Amino acid sequence: MAVAVFTGVLLLGNVLRELLALLVNRQATAGMVVEAVGLLIPFVWVFALPMGMLTATLLIFGRFSAEQELTAARASGISLLSMAGPILLLSLALCALSAWVNMDVAPRCRVAYTGLISRLKLELANAQLPEGRFVNNFPPYIFYVGKNRGGHLQDIIVFQLENGTNVVWSVHAPTGEVDVDTAARKVIVHLHDAKAISDNGALSGGGDVGLTLDLSPVHKSVPEISDMTFSQLWDLWDELENQFRMPGAIKGLSPAVVSARRREWERNRDKLASHIRFEIHRQVAFSFACFGFTLMGIPLGIRVHRRESNVGFAIALLLVAVYYGFILIGQSLEDKPQYIPYLILWLPNFLFEAVGAVLLWKANRGI
Predict the structure, then answer these.
(1) Packing angle of the helix pair 255-286, 80-100 (nearest 10 deg)
(2) Residue 65 in contact with residue 301, Cβ under 8 Å?
(3) Cα–Cα distances in Å, from 361 out to 79, 293, 354?
(4) Which residues have a Cβ under 8 Å from the Cβ of 22 and sit 6 or more positions away?
């Protein structure tokens, strides 16, 4: 249940940001939205699964302690470690599931989702010129279309801006058409019998005008480093290690110039290597979050021993903020390999597991 709640909250943020506007403007069908949400689920599970496990552990052991069931179990000769053992084994199983999702499923789904949004923009390019409203999705142009009947336009007004504010010229055309070039990811707007007015009042017109508009192509044959699977990252790392090597000497250049170029090349190479190494460690480190959260949640749930669910959620949110705070710090230092940012990703795991193990040992001894 907790995993479902966090998954829904995280999905809602992505849906509101990218999909809801397309759905409201009738640029996407309900089926496309469902497909996009399905592709987003593995991506948000990277975060929702550890958060849900932590919340469930806090609530269960908090209720277990508040109702004196822990005292009854100890009186029967059952230790806390015996009761917590299956939960810890479950968390390790969830770590394996998280590793599979983080290192393979989520990156592939993220690439597929990005491609879906790109295809959606291409296939529904006509709808990006809706009737009766000003559209500024294609800078430096602002469009107004009186009617749009399947790409056949009527009563079109186009303004071209300079520096985002000043109107350079405007065009009015009684009719026009929209053509979509899927291969080039472009929209071509043909204006018939167009009349143009420049900023100085000069009038010209009577002919046809063609405007080529760039759609933002986001789907690429090679994904971004942050969207690569673990195997793709490892292959890229091997390629960086084995193929991109600076020669020891370059014919025709002085040793001083060669040395300066080598230093510059090594700086650029180190940044790329740091980015790849960071993503590899991020995928692996995230996979152990379930175990660290569970190990921390069991003793904290017993110590808090409150019946109210909102207390468990509050503690869970606080621990999540601490955990992912380290991740944000590592990301901010991603382009600075001298700070070894990929090791920062492991600090919350070590911290949570060490503190959780000590607290669990104390709780088992009744301290």
Answers:
(1) 130
(2) yes
(3) 11, 16, 11
(4) 28, 33, 120, 124
Rounded to whole angstroms, the Cα distance separating 79 from 232 reads 45
Domain ranges of the chain: 2-123+267-365, 129-214
Mind listing the pLDDT tens digit of every residue in the chain (367 residues)?
667 776 777 666 666 666 666 666 555 667 777 787 788 888 888 888 888 888 888 888 888 877 778 778 777 888 888 888 899 999 999 999 999 998 999 888 888 887 777 666 655 554 457 777 777 767 778 888 888 887 788 888 888 887 766 777 888 888 988 876 656 667 788 888 888 877 665 556 667 888 877 655 434 445 677 788 888 888 877 776 665 454 444 445 556 655 665 566 566 667 777 788 888 998 999 899 999 999 988 888 887 755 555 666 677 788 888 888 888 898 888 877 778 888 898 999 999 999 989 988 888 877 6
Residue type, 201: G
Q: Kindly state the helix (H) or strand (E) to which residue 360 belongs, with its residue range.
A: helix 347-365
User: Full-prediction pTM beyond 0.70?
Assistant: no
